[in-house]
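Sequence and structure are kept together here, with a separate record for every protein. An example record follows, reproduced without changes.
>
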Amino acid sequence: MKIKVGVIFGGESVEHEVSIISAVQAMNKMDSEKYEIIPIYITKDRQWYTGEILKEIENYQDMDLIKRYCKKVVLYERNGAFVLQSKGLFKRIVKEIDIAFPIVHGTNVEDGTLQGYLQTIGIPYVGSNVYASVIGQDKVYMKQVFESEGIPIKNYTWFYDNDYKLDSAAVLDKIHKNLKYPVIIKPATLGSSVGIATAKNDEELIEGIEDAIQYDTKIVVEELVKNLKEVNISVLGNYKNQELSAIEEVISKEDFLTYEEKYIGGGKAKGKMPVKGTMKSASKGMAAADRKIPADLTKALEKQVRESALAAFKAIGSSGVCRIDFLVDTKEKKAYVNEINSIPGSLAFYLWAPIGKEYTELLDDMINIGIKDYKTRIHKTHSFETNILQGFSHGFKGMKGTKKF
């Protein structure tokens, strides 16, 4: 009997379209002999749909098509089974699923929100748990954890949007005291290079901050690495066992790898799903970015990257596949962890193929890890049989609107 895998993607996120690309890639590479693949698409207005046409990237150019041919559903537990039930007057069970596979990016989905819901209803799921997802999405939390573990990161500072709106001079003074130009400005909880800018002076810094606060309440500013080489590595596993992928060298024409370079191949449709005609190239996702594999690193730098990647993965308790991005100063010969991506674009499959692990096998490994994580979780004690509220009925005496138990 096939395992029923519910692939969840989309959501209310600026990385909504990137999630669609990643999920469609994955669904078309899963072993259909072993798994029944059930797409579960969350729209930008948080409605859940399921239907076979969701497996084809071209169908997302017309939302009316999806609403017409797909079922609007809710996911919940019913009599020990996890079901997708249709919404509306005449409710019925559309599908059952055995395990959820979130392939989501960004706020409201990748950041622990979705993982918390899945864990609340008790369904097995693939990937990092709530805690690791929260830390992996928030660059401030992430840096604080890495600092505490002695994992190398660049100098940084952070602030809330409200701090800047109330006293921009104080925020700028804080940045000047802690950092040297050039710097990079980032929304703390976004990915895919959305809302990121670099600055070499105050004018550019102010412009970058004012753009970043359009996307997030928390902003990170950090020093740029000189003599920069960007490299990435993927880690597969959980807290017990880990594997490392090949290391890629990212080729960018800018100070950092932009959204367009990652997903649109240099196109101009910033932050938007590519229009008809560019869909084919966009559907390659992160695999479309310019890269060199293996990265051109000395043995010493390669060792730094591999050791820091494992340390970062374990420090936040990641599971499944993560991609860890590094900033290498080729003159200092030092590798700094930039960030960890809990659910990386394209699930970083392109980093595993060069060492002999094809995408289908990678997805199979991820599902197996998700099942193992679930078995570990359910064998831990999360509640007690005793009810400490028994005998406390006297505490309600005299309270307005209550009755004696």
Summary: The mean pLDDT is 90. Residues 42 and 48 are 5 Å apart (CA to CA). The radius of gyration is 23 Å. The chain is about 30% helix and 25% strand.
